[in-house]
Amino acid sequence: MKVSRRDMFKIAGIGLGAGMAVKSGIAFSASSTPQRIANYKIKKLYHGVAYYPELWPLEDIDRDIAEMKKLGINVARMAEFAWSTMEPEEGYINLSLFKMVMDKMYAAGIDVVLCTPTATPPIWLTHGHPERLHKNENGEIMHHGARQHASYEHPAIKKACFNIIRAMAKELGKHPALIGWQIDNEMKAHVAEDFSDAAIVNWHKWLKAKFGTIEKLNEAWGTHIWSQHYQRFEQVPAPVKTPFLHNASLITAYKMFCRESVADFMKEQSDILHEYSDLPVTHNDNPAFNIHHERSMRAQDFASYDAYPNDKQWPALVYRSDMYRSAIPGRPFWLMETSVSHNGWLGNHQPPHPPEFLKVEALSVYALGGEAFCYWLWRQQRSGAELPHSAVMSAWFKPSIGYTEVEKVSKARQQLEPFVLGGKMVGAQVAITYSDHARAMIETEALDKRENFPNRYRGVIEMWQKHVMDLGIHRDVRFENAELSGLKVLITPAMPYVSEIFMARVLKFVKEGGTWIAGPVTGTRGKEHTVPTTAGLGLLDEFSGVETKFVVPLTKTGSKGRGFNIETELSGWCAAMQPKAGTKTIATIESGVAAGHAFITERSIGKGRVVVLGAQPHGESAQRFINTLITYYADLSGVTEKYNVSSGTIVAPRLDHNGHKLWVVINMDGQGGRLQIPAGSKDAISGKKITNTELHIAAYDWRVVYPANL
């Protein structure tokens, strides 16, 4: 018998009031889509470069390939900026250069990933056609000369994009060197919402498809405010400049429209590629890019990402590995771009990496579930906007600043590879929720404005991931619609709208024994970025067994709370709660405007529990408070994938090809570290037993350990 979402809430003893009607919705999780390759096993670890043969003399190609082989480079990514080389005039397409290079790569045993070149349209496509160009919210048109200047909403742009993609797929899609495709390049890295005329037309179509009638839009957005009431969809503006501010519902909806539209454009590209090629498709993503990241995974067969951290920013690399490892279950991710030493462009550059840092970057990617570690770029640009950027080879073709570090990566890859091939990551038991809808809402309406608090949504999620990482707990970052199987604790911070679909999935998770920690701001807004009118935290009030008396900002109020025998300052938007029967108060606000109310509650449902954290701890004791909170519920939930490891050193738990558990231990901060290990553990590379129960890791060093009795 099929159980409705309403019945699922009833099973837990949770009634649905009039304001809690269950609505239909669409989940965008890649985990719900068929995987083209099931039971995928890594057969090699890829060590790659971005290669641009269109920029250099043809006679350099053989020399490049010979040097790549010498360095242990086994994959090259090409063509993402080569549209004008492929199609110098409209309708005249010549792919012979790339076929010739691929022939040479194949002969040398180097695999190839081909990119669709749609990030840099040629001049003939946009010259004299301003209507085909991207327009920002200030009405400024993005002109030819860099990249991402065209409007993917314009039919002429789409037609030209699909034409070159189809030609590439038909002619090169079955080349023996080719192992995969990349869609576009860093989609929407430099631009945000598109306000071109073509975008506005599609915006109105999107609204009509979403709401059906203008009356439903008016009701959902509360448009009688400031006489915003609309008579037809064509009257609904985009959120361009106004004397003050647009309706929050409109601002967030436009962000979602633009980001969903880009993801759908990616899916159209992918569909064309798969017409002529059965090879997997990816896109070099980044949490900063202005797309719907979860929806974009429908266009991809494996996830990949960019990261350019300096040595102080290494936690961001681990965060992205945790996120993209979970994005498409069953397939390892790739790190498609990183610098061999320093990042740089005309306006800025970062300091060079210290010796050995690149090696541990690569090892962390491989150990945390990555299949490839690739550099941007092979040879330093001799022209363009990124002249200061580091590369493996200089423009005059001499080993550059990162060359010897690439040699170290190659050696380390070969040492690690036997323990990774045919194996897999151990599943995480703790995860942090990432929501594209939440991101858009928080960009519209910011969180905590205090100094040093993350000013972007991704910073908040990364902050919580780092809390868990620093406790030595193996973790995932999972999209809003991802499966919760295997988890014991789910942390959902900063998700203003909690949907019925998400709540039903969390209910099942909790009933089966999981712990859901709903973090600050979660539940404070409705689907269309309005304030809930049935309860302060919408569905979350009844689900968690609380009554939210009010929601108030505590930043700079001096408010303090106490829980776990720890006093902490509080900031951000606070849900001042009163527990109902069956719900426990875990922490109470002791001073300030919300004194006397609970700010952490716990309710048991089935075998598990739902915990609401209604305010953000900060100040000197904040770290200890949050660590205690996470540790308490991890222990209560039976989390076992946690390690007594010093800060700055990470542990990646894996199973080798025989199903034996191993730990890859890597010092990332250059300070050295230590890890408690069971007596009798073995060093996997040397085969020798480790005599101590505390393993010491030197600065930027690494070990592979077979832990005893596991």
TrEMBL record:
<keyword id="KW-0326">Glycosidase</keyword>
<keyword id="KW-0378">Hydrolase</keyword>
<comment type="similarity">
    <text>Belongs to the glycosyl hydrolase 42 family.</text>
</comment>
<feature type="domain" description="Beta-galactosidase trimerisation">
    <location>
        <begin position="428"/>
        <end position="631"/>
    </location>
</feature>
<keyword id="KW-0862">Zinc</keyword>
<dbReference type="InterPro" id="IPR013529">
    <property type="entry name" value="Glyco_hydro_42_N"/>
</dbReference>
<dbReference type="Pfam" id="PF02449">
    <property type="entry name" value="Glyco_hydro_42"/>
</dbReference>
<dbReference type="InterPro" id="IPR003476">
    <property type="entry name" value="Glyco_hydro_42"/>
</dbReference>
<protein>
    <recommendedName>
        <fullName>Beta-galactosidase</fullName>
        <ecNumber>3.2.1.23</ecNumber>
    </recommendedName>
</protein>
<dbReference type="Pfam" id="PF08532">
    <property type="entry name" value="Glyco_hydro_42M"/>
</dbReference>
<keyword id="KW-0479">Metal-binding</keyword>
<dbReference type="InterPro" id="IPR029062">
    <property type="entry name" value="Class_I_gatase-like"/>
</dbReference>
<feature type="domain" description="Glycoside hydrolase family 42 N-terminal">
    <location>
        <begin position="51"/>
        <end position="415"/>
    </location>
</feature>
<dbReference type="InterPro" id="IPR017853">
    <property type="entry name" value="GH"/>
</dbReference>
<dbReference type="InterPro" id="IPR013738">
    <property type="entry name" value="Beta_galactosidase_Trimer"/>
</dbReference>
